[in-house]
Amino acid sequence: MSLLQAIIMGIIQGVTEFLPVSSSGHLAIFKILFHMKTDTGLLFDVILHLGTLIAIFAVYYKDIFSMIVEGCSIVRDSFINVVRFFRNKCMHEQNEYIKIVTNGYRKFVLLVLVSTIPTGIIGLVASDLVTMASEILIIPGICLIGTSILLFISDRIHMGNKGPKNVSYTNGFIIGICQGIATLPGLSRSGTTIAACLISGFDRRFAVKYSFIMSIPAVLGATILELKDFKISSVTGTEILYYLIGMAVAAFVGYICIKTMLVIVRKKKFTIFSIYCLIVGLMSIGGYFYMA
After folding, report:
1. How far apart are CA 103 and CA 18, in angstroms?
2. pTM across the whole model
3. Rg value, the chain, Cα
4. Do the beta carbons of residue 139 and residue 184 sit within 8 Å?
5. 103 DSSP assignment
6. What is the per-residue pLDDT across 35-87, written as a single tens digit (0 to 9) for each?
């Protein structure tokens, strides 16, 4: 991998991660067309996702900080309730239990946890399938067309008004399944999860926020799984430097895209992205048969 390729892929990741056009699909197509091979499997893709993760933290740091605080409070209150349960049962006391979900951020934390469960299971089971799919040009093409159809349908869904307090845990679980399926290259993670949120009646602004914040544990989990067997000797110092540069580019471009393009995703129509995904998908499929 050259420095230029790392930079280009960082730009692709930063731009496409926050638009409903599938960053994984674009990265897969780019690597296939330019005959790029990395000896570390999905490692570089994971590092690029870490870059866009940094961008999410930079934009939503207030929400994330509040969720961390409330998450710690949930653990504390749950522990107190467990202690009171045993005291009530064993010592025949009548201690009242603490209500766990007392505000929107606590509900938000629990919803993200519920969404992460199916995403994690699908990610573990289908990891080899995703790696294989990323190496066959026709699969990202087909999935991009699927993304196009999904965005076209989403564009015609009536506006919802659900916030954290009104969203059910069933909604969260289903959206987590959608996020897990969207690991296939060409299926936009943001497009799939935002569409699932809109179908579930989410407020558009909250749908976008939920989509991006719920990706944090999924990306961190994928990073841990990818790095647990990673050996520093498997890559050169130059490759590590290029990887880090790609991550920095993805973070910088991603931050700019969240601040600018995210407004379009939340307030405008998905039609332009649907058309774009359809065109790229058809070109990818055509390229597969041309190269065959």
Report:
1. 28
2. 0.84
3. 21
4. yes
5. S
6. 665 544 467 777 888 898 999 999 999 999 999 999 999 999 999 999 999 99
